[in-house]
Amino acid sequence: xxxxxxxxxxxxxxxxxxxxxxxxxxxxxxxxxxxxxxxxxxxxxxxxxxxxxxxxxxxxxxxxxxxxxxxxxxxxxxxxxxxxxxxxxxxxxxxxxxxxxxxxxxxxxxxxxxxxxxxxxxxxxxxxxxxxxxxxxxxxxxxxxxxxxxxxxxxxxxxxxxxxxxxxxxxxxxxxxxxxxxxxxxxxxxxxxxxxxxxxxxxxxxxxxxxxxxxxxxxxxxxxxxxxxxxxxxxxxxxxxxxxxxxxxxxxxxxxxxxxxxxxxxxxxxxxxxxxxxxxxxxxxxxxxxxxxxxxxxxxxxxxxxxxxxxxxxxxxxxxxxxxxxxxxxxxxxxxxxxxxxxxxxxxxxxxxxxxxxxxxxxxxxxxxxxxxxxxxxxxxxxxxxxxxxxxxxxxxxxxxxxxxxxxxxxxxxxxxxxxxxxxxxxxxxxxxxxxxxxxxxxxxxxxxxxxxxxxxxxxxxxxxxxxxxxxxxxxxxxxxxxxxxxxxxxxxxxxxxxxxxxxxxxxxxxxxxxxxxxxxxxxxxxxxxxxxxxxxxxxxxxxxxxxxxxxxxxxxxxxxxxxxxxxxxxxxxxxxxxxxxxxxxxxxxxxxxxxxxxxxxxxxxxxxxxxxxxxxxxxxxxxxxxxxxxxxxxxxxxxxxxxxxxxxxxxxxxxxxxxxxxx
Amino acid sequence: xxxxxxxxxxxxxxxxxxxxxxxxxxxxxxxxxxxxxxxxxxxxxxxxxxxxxxxxxxxxxxxxxx
Lengths: 664, 66
Prior knowledge:
The structure holds two protein chains of two kinds.
Chain A: E1 4-9, E2 12-17, H1 22-28, E3 52-57, E4 60-65, E5 76-78, H2 82-98, H3 103-112, H4 136-145, E6 151-153, E7 160-162, H5 177-181, H6 199-215, H7 223-226, H8 231-237, H9 259-265, E8 286-291, E9 301-305, H10 309-317, H11 323-336, H12 340-355, H13 361-364, H14 374-386, H15 390-394, H16 398-407, H17 413-419, E10 422-423, E11 426-427, H18 437-444, H19 458-463, H20 470-490, H21 495-498, H22 515-529, H23 535-555, H24 576-581, H25 583-594, H26 603-629, H27 639-644, H28 650-656
Parallel strand pairs in A: 1-5
Antiparallel strand pairs in A: 1-2, 3-4, 3-5, 6-7, 8-9, 10-11
Helix pairs in contact in A: 2-3, 6-22, 10-12, 11-14, 18-20, 18-26, 20-23, 20-26, 23-28, 25-26
Chain B: E1 2-4, E2 8-10, H1 18-24, E3 32-36, E4 39-41, E5 56-61
Parallel strand pairs in B: 1-5
Antiparallel strand pairs in B: 1-2, 3-4, 3-5
C-alpha cells in the first residue's frame, strides 16, 4: 500500500501520498498555486519560481518551489502567506515588464493582483507570442524524444532558446513536442513537406503518447531502458520462453540473459534511436565496444544492434544463456544477413536431433551440438557464411533438414516432423504456444509462415481466459491479424499501440485492445488524409490486402489447409520427458478437458490421449477461423468474400478459381 | 473460495486483497487490468482492496510484446 502522510495545507489537514510533489499535494488540499513552467507531463523545472510556498517542518520555516519539492514527511504549508504573496507579486511585475502582452503572463499578473509593473528598462518584448524562457521546450525535447536539440543559448538578457550554433539541426525531425508544451505559442511548427490534412489532430494524439513514454514507461514495459528484451523475463516467469527447441517454457539460467542484464552491463543508453530518429519510445538498443571472440572479425570492437526479445528467446531455445554469446550471435546473424529467429530455431532443432541420436559428430564435422553449445553454434554460423561444413546444411532451414533426414532414413520420421518447428517453410518465432490454441493458430495460420506479428494471443487466451469458445478465438484471429496488418499498410510501428499503455486503460470495456491507442492511430490516419476512420473501415482496408495476400499464397501453393497445420511441438508435449516436466498441468487437463482419468496410464499413453484431443481442438479452431474470415474449408478465400471486399477483379478471382468449392 | 478469470480458484482467507490474489498466482505482470465482481480496481488500490468470499475476479494481462 502506498504510504500516506498527513500534512496541513493553509490550516487544513490533508492526507497525501508519500513522495508526492508539494504542488500536487496543495492542489489535493484545495489550494491553487500559480506557475508558468510546470507541465503535467514533464519533470518539474522549478524555473519560474511562481509556485514558491512557505513550509514549516519541525518548527523550522523555509521557502521552497512547490513543483519540485518532494513531500517525504509531515509539514505545514502556506500557499498565500504575506511573504509568499509579496515574492509572487514581485515576480509578476518582472514578468509583466518584459513580456507585457503575453496572455499567460497577463493571467499571472491578474492572479497576483498586479496591474502595472514598477520596473523600468528597455527590455520589453511586445509580441504576445514571445518566449518567456520557461524551459519547457528544452525539457520536452529531452524527456519526450531523448534529444537535446532545443536548448538555451546566451546569458543574462541575451538568454534565448535555440538549436546548437543557431543552425537547423538535422536531428530535429519536427516532432512538435517543443511547440506542444510551449505556454505562449512562441514555437510554431509549419509542416510544408507532408501537407497533412489536419496537423493538430496528429499532434494531439502523438503528444499523448510522448507524455506516456516519459511518465509511464519507467513503470510499465521499460522499452526505453532495454527495448523489447524486457519481455524475456515475463516469458520465463509465465512458462512461455522457448527452451530446448520449444520443449519447455522456462529455465533456471534464463535470468542470465534477462533484459536487465543487458541494460546494466552492455547497452549504451541515451543514444539516438537508430530505428526512427525522434521516436519517443527509442526501443532499438545497441551495445558499443563489444569485442568479438570468433569469426572473421575476431578481436574487433564492434557495435551490436540489439538484442531484441526474439534474439534472446532464440538463444534460450538453443540453451545458450551467456549474454556475450547472445551479442556475438546477434552480431554475426546481422553481419551475414540471416534472421536470428530462423537461425536459432533451426540450430535448436539440430541440437534436439543430435541429442536424440538422429545425427552424430560424423554428420556435424565433429561438432558436439548439444543444447547450450555456444561455441559450436557460432561455428555453424561461420561455416554457413564460408560455404563449407555442416553449417551449410543447417542454413537450408528446418523443412529442408527434416525432409533430408527422413529421406535418409534417420530416426523416426514422425518424431522429426513433430519437433521440426516450421510451417510453410518458415521457422517458428520465439514463444511457446502449447497452452494457447489461439496462439497456435495465430502462428501457424499466419500467411507468411509462423510469425507472431499477426496475432499474439497467448495472454488473452491462456492466462486471461478471454477466448473460451472457438467463436471467440476465431473473432480474435479475425481482428488482430487485420489490425496488425493495418500497421504495415500505413507504414506505422505497432509498438506505440501496446508497448506503452494509457494510465486509464483499465477502465476501457475492451482493455486488451488498448482502445485509447487504437483511436490514436485512427487520428494519425484522419489527420494525414482527411478521411474519417472507424474500426469497420480499418478492418475492411486491411482485409482487402490480407485476402489478396492469401490468394497469392494459394497461387504459390501454400494457401491451403495442409499448410495451416502445425508440427505437434507447437500444440503439445511430443515426448514422455516433455510431458513429465509439466505432468501436473497435463494430468489435470486429461481429467478436466479430455475426460480421461490419468491414474494408471503410462506416460506414453497420456501423451497420445492428450495429443488426439489437442489436435482435434486445433482443427476445430482452424475451421471456425476459416469461416470467420470468409474462406472455404480448404482455407481458400471465397469469391463471395472477394466480392464483399470489392477485390473480385478477374485476375484475382482467377488466382483462386480452381480452389473454389460448391456452396454448402 | 474465489474465482479468477472464470477458470481458476483461489482459497479465500480473511483480509485477502487483490494484490495477494495476484501474487498467489505468480502474476506480477505490470500491465494487469482487474475487475472485482464487475467493478474496476485501480492498480494503486490492489493492496488495499479486500476481496470478499465467493467473489469473481477478472485479471486481464494487457499483452505487450509480440
